[in-house]
Structures are given as structure tokens and as C-alpha cells.
Design brief:
Layout: H1 2-27, E1 29-35, H2 43-50, H3 53-56, E2 59-65, H4 69-77, E3 83-86, H5 89-95, E4 103-110, E5 115-119, E6 135-137, H6 144-155, E7 165-167, H7 175-181, E8 186-190, H8 193-200, E9 204-208, H9 209-213, E10 219-224, H10 225-230, H11 232-250, H12 254-261, H13 270-282, H14 294-306, H15 316-319, H16 323-330
Parallel strand pairs: 1-2, 1-3, 6-7, 6-8
Antiparallel strand pairs: 3-10, 4-10, 5-8, 5-9
Helix pairs in contact: 2-11, 11-16, 12-13
Amino acid sequence: MKKIKNLLCFLPFLLIFLLAACQNTEEEQTVRLAEVTRSLFYAPQYIALEKDFFKDEGLNVELQTTWGGDKTMTSLLSGGADIALVGSETSIYVYGQNPKDYAVNFAQLTQTDGTFLVAKSPKSDFKWEDVKGESFLGQRKGGMPQMVGEYVLKQHQIDPHNDLTLLQNVDFGNIPSAFVSGDSEYVQLFEPTASVFEKEGKGHVIASFGEESGKVPYTVFMAKQSYLNENTETAKKFTRAIYKAQQWVENHSSDEIAELIQDYFEDVELDILISSIDRYKSQNSFATTPILEKEAWETLKDIMDAAGELPKEAPYKDLVNTEIAEEVMDE
């Protein structure tokens, strides 16, 4: 009899616990996030995951790396992902194909190009005209790194297709090794590879494409129109978490950031992570707010147009949603 009484006393607490557990399960929403590559450039995203900013919003974010703009957009448009972190130029390419449910940019993560000009030999007095007549190992045709690279060269009155030998036949993942084993004097590299090359004596960082090209919506979170229409509150929660992470990155040191996201880059030494993050922070590559500004969007279109890659007019009002970010920041 005593055991029954004890059980009866315990049942209300058990019921409360089960109800709370069910409520939490119902409230948590899964968001499938596809990132175009695993990059130190996306540090604020990893901060949002590590600091549980998404979980604080009731979101269970499942991160997948889709390795390439084409694969990332295919995953997004086919329903394999809810949100994609990818170069904003991909949304313009999709829009140019006249789809009924195209991708809309709603939260910006990085606001400059993330590549650096690396030379095989030291060049303490480097001038951009020095690349004339040299072999330059570039990035994939139509991708943002390559288009920004060409844009910067043209800004310095250098024709990338006539004034130098531009190589674009190497896959993104093989560019670093191709530079080391090949004859090219120059290459365009992201961090932390650029810093690793410096440390190992394989190359020397002599210029920043991010500093040269200025603000551009380089990497952006986007989703299909239908997803944003049907999941506005989810998108708002997602953006709120990203904004918290952006502010956290802005207000903390490179050392603190590197230590927190080190598990995402197990093959990179901590000192390289720190110096790479510091280099990005010093040139303001990490956006401090999720708002994609119209001026930066117009710069993006100028860059694409100069590269001959702008398929059609890409209206800011159609391809960019700032309402979600603005609401989050006004809270």
C-alpha cells in the first residue's frame, strides 16, 4: 500500500516532466542548412552553432557541407536543404533561368572577398602591374573569387585574359597543390591556406582582393521564396541567431573565436586559425549585421557584368529580403 501511495505521489511530477518534454520537442524546429564549403571565412556561422544561439531560438540546425555552388543550389532548389550559405551570385544565376520559385537572399554573412594574392617569391615592393606577363593560377570561371580577381585586375588597368597567362583548369580543392607543384608565380587563395603557405615557405601573401574590391555580398544565407513565405518566423529566428553571432565575433578576440571553432578545422593549427581570423577581422570581412545593402548588391552586379557573367538584370527588390533582418535588429 505504501508503494502505491509513493507511486501516486510521484505521478504528478512524472506527468509534468513528460508534458514539458513533449512541448519542447514540438517547439523545436529542424532547419537543414547547406554550406557551400567548410571555410574559416564562415566563422560567425560556427559561433552560432557552438554558442547555441540557434538552440536558444528553438532551432535544431543540421549543417551539411555540399562542396560547390552548383551542388549547393541543387540541394536548395530540390528541397534537400531549407537554407543555403553560398555566394549571392548563385541566386542571380538561378534567377536568370526564370524559375517560378527562385532563391532569395535574406541574411548576409561576409561582406568582402575572402581571397588573397599569394606569390611564390617575396615581393616587398609589389605593384599590381608586376603580374603582367606572369602565370596566374585563378579560380573557377563564373565563381565569385575569379570574378572579383578579374575585377580587381581591371581596376588596375590589367586585362586578365591578355596581359598575363590566366589558368582556370584546376578544381577548387586542388588549386593549392597545383600552385606548389606548378610554374605559376601567382595564385588566389583563401585563409587558412594562405597563412599555412606563408608559415611553410610555399608562398607569400602580398595583397588582399577583399581590400581592393570593397564591400560586396560575398556569402549570404538564402532560401526559396516559398520557404520564406511559409516559414517567416523560422527565418526570423535563424537570422536572430546569426546576428547574435555576428555581434559576438565583432566584440571578441581572434584567439577566443579560434578556440571556440577549432573543432571545425581539426587539421589546422591554432596559431594559423588565430592569424587567419585576425586577417579577416582587420579587413572587416565578417559582416556585423545580416542586412544586405543595395549599394553592395549593385557592386556585385558590376563585378559579374565586367566578367561577362551577368545573365540578366537582377533586381534588388526581387532577390534580396531585408525585412527579416531589419525586424530582428529593431527588436
